[in-house]
Amino acid sequence: LTTRTIRIKAGTYHEKIFLTKHNIVLEGEDRERTKIIQSIARDEWRCEHLSDWGVATINIDGNDITLKDLTISNEYGFTQLVPRTVSCSHDTTGTKQITRNSHQMALRSMNATRLKAVNCHFRAYAGDTVSPWNLAGGMFYFKDCIMEGGVDFYCPRGWAYAENCTFYAHTGSAAIWHDGSTNPDYKTVLKNCRFDGFKGFKLGRYHKDAQFYLVDCTFSENMANVDIYLVPTANPLQWRRRIFYANCRRDGGNYQWFADNLQTADGAPQKEAINAAWVFGDRWQPEQIL
User: Fold this and answer.
1) Residues 95, 85: contact at Cβ < 8 Å?
2) What whole-number distance in Å separates Cα of residue 52 and Cα of residue 238?
3) Domain boundaries, the chain
4) By the 8 A CB rule, do 195 and 221 touch?
5) What span, in angstroms and rounded, lies between the C-alpha atoms of 68 and 155?
């Protein structure tokens, strides 16, 4: 199939994007000068809509989508500092209070797979900034990106690989999250990534079966002494705890919980072998064309 490239000149675009076609590249002229901006609180959106389709600045339901050299921002929590009460037909009271800490998605995918982002900045104040969700074969690749937000602001479902990315937590009880509950091979891999945020930010959490690999990552001294943790729920867990680290470091001193433990992972992989090809196998080769 032919891949179509849409080149976007530098500028600030107050637009909401819906992508349902396949094999599309959206390429900005310059990451810091090509900005796509919306202001959307998920709680408010769901008051009048039955699904998340449209809840984000960029909404994706097509396969083989690539985003390059773009800033994609949901400004709600940065600009709406005080709570608002809105009409809400899906709430029993008919109204709902919306706060700046409600979920704010810059990117939300639906059934998409083979989604790639290179040199992009995904920006929100609160939770679920980058939400690539697909538990039926979802594959997601991020390279040289910046992500910022609140709770679970990078929250892939399925297979996900992020390399040379920077994460900044503005608020919330965890920065990263994963759902791998429908396939024991699903995993989120973060390689050579940097984590920073407010003083006491926590690295990550999960609610269902998940699998995390952090390789050659660095943490600021603001990170709390709290390992990636399971949130107690009624969700049944099929597999053991699978949280793995290799050669990670924290400014100001390491915590014992992120000591090297790859030898306890299935197959005991060497850290040098952990790359995009290791994650996706023959299913996808996202680095063939960057």
Assistant:
1) yes
2) 28
3) 19-283
4) no
5) 20
Q: What is the pLDDT of residues 162-211, one digit of tens each?
A: 999 999 999 999 999 999 999 999 999 999 999 999 999 999 999 999 99
Contact predicate 130/109, CB 8 Å: no
What does the alpha-carbon distance between residue 170 and residue 158 come to, in Å, rounded to a whole number? 25
Is the Cβ–Cβ distance between 106 and 123 less than 8 Å? yes
For domain 19-283, is the CATH number 3.40.50.300? no
Contact in structure between 211 and 186 (CB atoms under 8 Å): yes
Give, for 72, the enclosing helix (H) or strand (E): strand 71-74
| Pairing of the two strands 84-87 and 95-98 | antiparallel
54 Rama sector, left if φ>0, alpha if ψ -120 to 50, beta otherwise: left
Residue 78: both structure tokens together: 């940065």
- Reported as a single tens digit per residue, the pLDDT across 93-152 is 999 999 999 999 999 999 999 999 999 999 999 999 999 999 999 999 999 999 999 999
